[in-house]
Design brief:
Structural class: alpha/beta
Number of helices: 7
CATH class: Alpha Beta
Shape: globular
Bound molecules: S-adenosylmethionine
């Protein structure tokens, strides 16, 4: 059930979307290898992009002269409550082979994490991919939300706790270097949350808001 702050958080996001070029959807492409790996592994043809941003990744050729959906070879349902043209969620009984959710969970207030994460998993039949950026926040980065509704430290454990009973959830923390066996490692629980090899572009910082 929605918290009393949820609609306000969406309105703040809507405002931010209107006034800024960021939240375009381009960050999804930072996980292109991971998402392609999952699409191929699960032979997915339909994807829900939950919190897709302005959708530039689906309107502008960005990989090998193709849009992201063309490159993946899938049909994508774009959902983002803060972008008017994508603000209608799929009907509750609609299913997709995969759900992707890139850099979105940190925008969800504490009291809404539970139902949002349930909603995300409810749409998927084969896999859910969640990408989260653990890069140190830029010093002057504005927090657009009221911090009273984001009291929980946004750690890897915190995010994972909402998916404890769900199967086929695939995580990617951006400070980790990509390696090709990562899908197998997540399936067999070999995958470590804190990587042995770091992507030097990122820092190990758990809190993102
Ligand atoms: C950092 S951007 C990421 C956009 C895109 N997924 C990407 O990776 O490039 C965060 C996105 O979360 C969306 N967002 C904010 N509140 C949301 C909510 N309650 N449910 C779903 N998406 C939300 C914003 O509109 C924004 O597009």
């Amino acid at each position: 059930m929605k918290s009393s702050y949820y609609d306000e958080s969406v309105n703040l996001g809507l405002q931010f979307q209107k006034e800024n070029k960021s939240w375009s959807g381009a960050d999804t492409l930072k996980y292109q290898k991971q998402i392609k790996g999952l699409v191929d592994r699960f032979q997915a043809t339909t994807i829900l992009d939950y919190g897709c941003g302005k959708g530039m990744q689906y309107s502008t050729p960005c990989i090998d002269g193709k849009t992201f959906d063309e490159w993946l070879g899938v049909t994508v349902y774009k959902y983002d409550p803060c972008v008017p043209e994508f603000s209608i969620p799929p009907p509750a009984n609609m299913k997709f082979d995969g759900v992707i959710c890139s850099q979105v969970l940190h925008t969800i207030p504490d009291d809404d994490m539970h139902w949002v994460c349930e909603q995300i998993t409810s749409y998927s039949t084969k896999f859910v991919f969640i990408g989260i950026n653990f890069k140190k926040p830029a010093k002057r980065k504005k927090h657009i939300y009221d911090k009273r509704y984001f009291k929980q430290p946004r750690t890897r454990e915190y995010f994972k706790s909402f998916f404890k009973n769900s199967k086929n959830i695939f995580w990617w923390w951006k400070d980790r270097m990509f390696y090709s066996e990562w899908i197998d490692d997540q399936i067999s629980n070999k995958w470590l949350d804190v990587p042995e090899i770091w992507d030097p572009t990122y820092h190990f910082v758990e809190t993102t808001i």
